[in-house]
Specification:
With 516 residues, the chain is of the alpha+beta class. It is built from 16 helices and ten strands.
Length: 516
Amino acid sequence: MLTTREIASSLTRDDDPADEFDTAAWLSRRLAEDTAPALRWTLPHLETVEHAAAHGIHADGTGTYRRTPTGRRISAERVNALTAGGFLTVAEGIVTATADGVEAARRLRAVPDALMTPEAFRAHSHRVNRARAHGKRAELLPCLPEGEEDKRRQAAAREWLAAHMRQAAIDREEFAARQAAWEAADEAERSAKAAQREADWQQRAHERRYGCGSCPASWELDARCGTCRAAYQPAPHVPEAEADEDGWAEEYAEQAAHDAAQAPTRRPSVRAEITRHRQTGSHSQARITLPAHRAHRARDHRAIVLELARLLGVQTSSPRRLLADGTHTGAELWRHVDVTGPARAVDRMLTALGPVMTRLERMATRAARRYGAWRRSLMTVLSGVLDEFTPTEVKNLGRRYRSDVLAHLTASMAQGPQQPVRDDARRPLWERADAVAAELWIQDPIDPWTATVEPATPPTPHSPTPARARRTRRPRTGTYRQPATTRPATLRTRDAARPAPRARVTSAAARTHRAI
């Protein structure tokens, strides 16, 4: 136990400088112990950095590094990893150590136990490469904490974040502007639709009360339109007919009645035309033209013509465009088909071509309507078979389906009676064209040898109404020219005086243009 004298002497005695505690050294070693293991260096990494700091590493520009220009090689993977971590730098073919590299080497020399073993570093390298292969961001050697490279990366990250925030602010402003424009356009569209609905409602209310407003006052109530007859208070909205000296109201009524009578009349569609037909003895030749507006329809009609000609024993060929020297070596005119053969066979084909094409087209139209009903059906919509197609692609599929059905029907003429084809309702309809064609053929088979021309309803003659006749007899102001309905006498005389060719016998059908 210390006495009072010893305690007093110890308090008054000066401290020995050798016994002072080195705080800076202790902090340096504590920092090295905390940060050195996280660097994940091995002894070769430490030796590489020390050699680069003392002598420099020579790089030949091809990815090879040596201790001297001709000395022992150093692993390029090791040098690249240290360079990526900011411990080495390359300048003019010499690899030197940075301040971070020197400081890291000093810390690892102070704590040699922090170095990794080669086996542990290989496992770490394997994990990093696997993460990079999966698209993840991983570093083989991290940079020195609070070092120059770490500060540079933090500054770059702060700069990127600031740029990202500025761009985000700009994007928010642009989106707000677009959203305001969308809302304004939507509001304008809603207002326009509301105004249109209001106007339509007012128009319907006015028509229900007063009528359409277009029927002349000179007409009786029974002669007016259905809107005027169903109105509560039918009122004339057109001046009286007496105000028109030409009686335009009566003319309008007669013209409307005539147009109503002509409306149901429909000109039959022309699928094939006989543009040339001549006969020489017992041999006959004709040219069939396919005037369909769309090319795929014309090609379908051409297939029908070729199949019918093959069944009836008639030869077919396609004319070619004449070249400048008169040779037939130009492009093939596929819209024209020349048929040659015995006169009876050619006449039979020309007679049966129209009815056969009409019946085949009707059956193909029925199949196309079935495709439309299938496309709009609830089961098709719920199955989602058309979800991956655009509207144009769906339309093209329907067009191809109709052509396939027509091709199967055309081929069925040579096969005769058929058995029903097994159909799988789970497949799309465009893949079941053969089954649909077989079903249509069984319901209405076609025999090309017994096909005859179907009687057509004669169109209503376009006779002029009394109003037109009155306008023709009494033309109004200006020069009135009658349409020419006959050819000039000079042309008729010249045609009559032209001699007929003697080389072949030309039938009367050669000077006609028949439509099928």
